[in-house]
Each structure stands twice: as C-alpha cells, then as structure tokens.
Amino acid sequence: MKFTCFHLMPYRPLDLEAAKNYRSSWVVLPNSMYDPKKGAAEYDSYLDQLVYAEKLGFDVIGVNEHHQTAYGMMPAPNLIASALIQRTKSVKIAILGRALPIVGNPINIAEEFAMLDVLSKGRIIAGFVRGIGAEYHASGVNPAFSHERFHEAHDLIVKAWTTPGPFEFEGTHYRYRYVNLWPRPYQSPHPPIWIPSMGSRETIEWASVPERKYPFLVTFSSETAVVRYLNMYREVAQTHGYTASGSQLGWAVPVYVAETDARARQEAKAGIETLFNNFLSMPWEMLLPPGYTSIPSLKATMKIRTSLGGARNHTIDELIGNGTAVIGSPRTVLEKIERVRDQTGVENLITMLQFGVMPDELAVRNMELFASEVMPKLR
Amino acid sequence: MPDDRLTTRGVAVRVQRGGTGSPALFLHGAGGWPAWLPFFEQLSRRFALTVPEHPCFGGSDDPQWMRDVADLAMYYLDLLETAYSSPVHVIGHSLGGWVAAAAATRNCRRFASLTLLAPAGLRVKGVPPGDNFIWSPEEAARNRFYDQRLAEAALAAPPPSEQQLDIDLRTRFAAVKFGWEPRWLDPALEKWLHRIIVPTHVVWGRDDKILPSAYARLWGERVPGAQVSMVEACGHSPHIERCDIVTEKVLGFLERVPR
After folding, report:
1. pTM for the full predicted model
2. What pLDDT does residue A157 have?
3. For residue B33, is pLDDT > 90?
4. Nearest CA to A116 among A77, A157, A65, A74?
5. CA-based torsion, A31, A142, A76, A46: positive or negative
6. A-chain residues within 8 Å CB-CB of B166?
7. CB contact under 8 A, A144 and B136
C-alpha cells in the first residue's frame, strides 16, 4: 500500500455557532468571519504538518482546491504545492485536484503543473476533478456543461503536455490558435493523473479506459459505497478488456489513531463532527446543482449517500459505524483498512489526519501513531 | 394529458392546444410546462392557443446541439414559419418571455404582437435577480408567490411519481442549461430591443422575488412603444397568481392590436 497524507486546511477559528445562521459554510458564509492573522497561523501549522509527513515516511503529501469556503483554505492549491516543494526533498506532492471545468483557460493549469513538476524535479501528481457542486455557485460556470468542459480541458492539458507545440486547439468550450507550453513537464510523458471523485459511473467509465487507466480515488463515503465504487472500477476495467491493478484504486478517508478505541473516539469527536456538520454540510441545491451529474447518477447518489447533504447532526458513532471515518486503536484502524483492502484490492490510501477543529497537538500525534503503528503493517 | 406533439425541423415538442381564432403561442418559464391553466382557458375563448413545452424540457426532445437561449429563439422562429401561415400573438413568461423577445429582435415578420410576463433576459445593474438555483424547494415556492396560500398549496402537493420525477429533473436540468450563466441574462439583448417593431406589452408582478419588477421599466424604455402593466400584490407568475386581472389586461391589449 502507498500512503498519502492529505490536508484540507480548514479554517478552525471559525465561529461555529454564528456560521450556523447561514445555509452553508460555503459560498454564502460572509468572509468578514475570516481573520487573516489567524489564517496565517493556520497556514503555518498545516504546512508544518505536511512537511513532517515526509519525515514520517508517507509516500505522498496532498492538498486540494475549494473556493469561497471555511472548509478548506486553498482556492489556489498550486501555491501551497509550490511552498511544499521548497521545504521537502523527495516526497511526492499531489494536488487533488484542480477543478478543470471552472477555469476560463485550462492552459493556465497545464502551465502551472508543468512549472511545479520542473521545480520539484518530477514529484508532482496531478489530480483532476470537476469540483463539487458548490464550486459552480462560486465560479458561476454552468454545471450543465461541467462534464463537457472537464473532458475538453483534460484533453487540452494532456495534449499540451505531450504534443510538441505550437499547435492549434479547436474545442467547443476552449479554442486556441497557439498552444506551446514553456516550460514542459519534468516527468515523461507527463505527471501521473489521479481522479478523486465522490463516485459516479460516468467518472469511473471515463477514468478506467485503457488509454488512461487513471487511479480513481473515492472520497468521503461509507464503507459500503467505497467498496461498491472501487469494485465498479474493477468491473468496468474488465469490460474494457483488462484487470485493474490495486494501484489504480484509492480511498480517501479521515483516520484517527490513539492508544485505545475509547481515547481515539474522545479525541476525534470534535474534529470529525465539525468536519461533517459545520464545514462540509450544504443543501442538495448547492451540492448537486442540476446538470452536475446525469439524472440516473443524481438519483442513485441521492439514494446511497448518507454522509453528505443537508444534515447537520452526524455523530462520531454513526460515522465510525458506516465506515466514513476510521477511528480507533492501531489494531482497530488496521483491521478496518485491511477489511476494505480485502474487499477491493485498494493500494492507495489517502489519509486525512487533521480534520475539522482538531488541534495541532492531536493532529501531529495522530500522524505519528498512524505512521509508526499502522502504516508499516500495511506496506 | 394526450400526447400531442409538434415537430419542427426534426425536433418534437409536447403541445397543448385549445380554442379557435387568430393563432396565439404561449412560451413557458423555466419552472416547466404548465398544465392547462385558467389563463389558457380564457385566452382560448378568443384565440387558437398553442402551448408547447420547450425543447430540452420535461418530455420534449432533448437535442444536444441546442445550448442556449439564442438556439431556442431560432427554433421558435422556425416553428413560427413552419407551423403557421399568418402572424402569431406570442406570449412568453419568464424564460419564455426572454426567448420570445430574443426571437423578435432577430425577425418580427411572424409576430402579430408580443406579450411578456415577467420576462428574463435583461438586468438592471445593482438589482440582482433572486438566486432560485440555491433556494430549497420551500424557499422556491414561497418566493414564487406573493400570496403565501398559493405557496403552501404547492408545497402540500403529493410527491411526484417516478415518471414525473424524471420529467421534473429534465426540466430542472434544462433550466440550468439556459439560465445559469450569466444568470437569466443575455448581456447583448438590451442593445437590440429596438428591433422589436410589433405591439409589445410587458406585464409584471410588483412583488416579484425572482425577477424584480424594477426590470419592467427597462423593458418599457428599450422596446419601442411598449406598454407596461404593473400588477399589485403579485409575484413572479402573474398569469397564475392574478389570473383575472392579467387576463383582462392581456386580452385588452390584444384587442387593440391593429389587424
């Protein structure tokens, strides 16, 4: 198994009670509730944690992109990646991801990833996502064209990385007379591409075709949904005529380890409950605007997904019970991860070891315990 | 509902028809194809009224090449030319009003008149429309009507059948496609409204929370000779909420249209 230490960089100083007066901590939460001085201290803590992850032996450190939200303070994740390159030596750096459809000019994304790849001498993993529904409220981009823009931006970026320029690109949403990247990516043919997703058949079909075989990372899902989506990838790969390897499968999950189950629950409770109830929670209208997914996929998602949506009363017991969070003693955590691995063959574990309001001290101890007590047994 | 369809250049849409007389065409709003409303019943006593469901909505064809209001406007110009042999009184509500006005700026030859009920398509700077895409179903119902009893009746309706849910979702998808960005707006429309050279009547609910009634004046200023009627104590669907008053105003206007 390979291990990613992934961070959302939530804004912990948020006045949680005041934030409850708004429909979500996304898009409509007034930014007068953000204090730049406290925000600066948050960046310091979080960058230190990710840098420390290299020393602890993680294979990859990961950041991601969200907009206009206290849930994550990285609207421009490549800026964070650039800082991490300067403070680390050999760990891979995954940007999970850039939301392709919501930018006006995808060549900027191709250029920035190429710069980061050269700066890091080939340590970059490029995550491509469509962004969750709220990003379409934040950016104004029409969700009805989200899939089209994603596919077209992807094709443009990969072509820009791999085809000698200058060339002309004629798409539906993007058209350029000159595409000619300076610099080009350091890795050949290009940085690895990972596809994080809340899970949809369309995404799995697209990621798994033989010319891509992109690793698919299922995020924030119950154990049932994780197993279902990862096995769906395997099944779809079979229909394409090959057997998917475990390295094509990833599971992104909040993890907390302490000496005992009871202590882990006690220490993780505030963090995990604020993550889901205060930072992530949003109504369906924001999470899944019409057009963002196909109608069958929308209906399926509304049926199986219990850990997202309008509810603001998730409990740690429920989140542990359905496997959305893995929390407990080293032995408990190990067993739960092994159980999913046994059912799916998943070989990429993307752990989120700080979440919600969890303070630095607990986050760092969690990272250390996971790295020393769990990680070696899964290698 | 009988499955009556009208095909124009290969794209079939569901239609409801009633009445005899001069032809009239009603273009619905983004909320979807309405049932045969009392307003339609009133109009059909004087006119041969057709109420199509827009392409991409509900149970009509969903051509992937149809991508924006400009495409819808051209589609309806085709429909006016192929389905009718004489000019048509076109009445459009909200999105349908925007489509009708956009079509009329391109070519008025097939329009006998234009009636716009709280049309989308324009913006008064500093007066944003309501964000109906972020509202919950309850907020959407409440913000649609001035009379909250109508909102409560809408909210008390039984949940849709599986088949109706698919139709509703297709309608919501189509609304997003045509209205999300720029939100209920074609920035270029305002500068071409002088090309609407048929009698035009703009009707607005004073208390519209989706498209503010402040927009009515701009329409009145930009469309040559347009008459503007403001309906008091009324939300975004004046022909539903104040059917009697709106029917009187609409029929009064249509009767004065020179033949």
Report:
1. 0.95
2. 98
3. yes
4. A77
5. positive
6. 295
7. no
Cα–Cα nearest to A266, from A220, A327, A318, A192: A327
Q: List the 294-313 stretch of A: residues with Cβ below 8 A of B.
A: 295, 298-299
Taking the C-alpha atoms of residue B163 and residue B139, their distance in angstroms, rounded to an integer, is 24
pLDDT in tens, A161-219: 999 999 999 999 999 999 999 999 999 999 999 999 987 788 899 999 999 999 999 99
- B1 and chain A: CB distance < 8 Å anywhere? no
Token pair 């194809």 in the structure block, residue: B33
* Contact: A23, B134; criterion CB under 8 Å: yes
CB distance B55 to B28 below 8 Å: no
Contacts of A294 in chain B (CB under 8 A): none
- Amino acid at the residue A200: S
Q: What is the pLDDT of residues B34-68, one digit of tens each?
A: 999 999 999 999 999 999 999 999 999 999 999 99
A222 in Cβ contact with A322 (< 8 Å): yes
In chain B, which residue's Cα lies nearest the Cα of A28? B134
Q: Which residues of B touch A290 (CB under 8 A)?
A: 133, 169, 172-173, 175-176
Q: What does the angle CA B132 – CA B137 – CA B142 come to, to the nearest 5 degrees?
A: 75
Average pLDDT estimate for A208-237 = 96
From residue A341, alpha-carbon distances to A249, A327, A329, A348 in Å are 10, 16, 18, 10
Three-state DSSP class for residue A148: helix
CA distances from B181 to A170, A373, B121 (A): 22, 51, 11
Could you tell me how many residues make up chain A?
379
Establish if B172 touches chain A: CB-CB under 8 angstroms: yes
* E strand or H helix that includes residue B63: none
User: So what's the pLDDT on residue A307?
Assistant: 43
